[in-house]
Amino acid sequence: SNENDYSITYPVSNKETYISLLLSQEENKDILVSCFYGKYGEEWKLEMLQFGQYAIFHKNAIDIYKEAQQDYKKGKILDAVINLNLLKKVANPASDYFKYQKYEEMKEFQKQVYTEASKKYPLPLLLSEVKTTPLIYDILPNVTEEGIFPSISYKTKIDISDTTSLKKENDELQQKLGEILPDLSKTKDIYFQAFNELPVDENALVKYYGFIMKSANH
Question: How many other C-beta atoms lie within 10 A of the C-beta of residue 194?
């Protein structure tokens, strides 16, 4: 009946078994330690140990889901997308063994929002509003020690060693961001990453130059 309810499904071969969940809280993330035990004769033995991220800045999957719903209702679909990308990080803190009761509901909402966002802002997005026509290819959450901020990654034709020209381009991008991405809230700092080459995958090391657009509330 509680919105945070979850179930744990785990195959067992013992007549007696139990599961212990321990929460390790840090400043900007909470780690769930899941311990699966089985009784062998008179001895309890640890059969499996799982570590997974349960919360970001003490917000678990349900908290983030509710924020995404509020963003969506306000018409801030890109804010909702950013929150849903965070949600993926904490939705399964013990792999497939841990499942929120609202998991399928969250998945359906995620699918709906992603579909609408991709129609409105098909990525990669060519920015004809900016003279140098950079190409936005990703909008993701950036988790720092200070908080969670939107991060916009874009491909530029300007060599990233030419920081003066890069700044002029980014200044123009910041000035026209409200026109380009009206569904992205400007109440938080926004991070930018300018690339000459697109990363092949999230683990690829590619040089970039970064900028921060300070919010009006900063």
Answer: 23
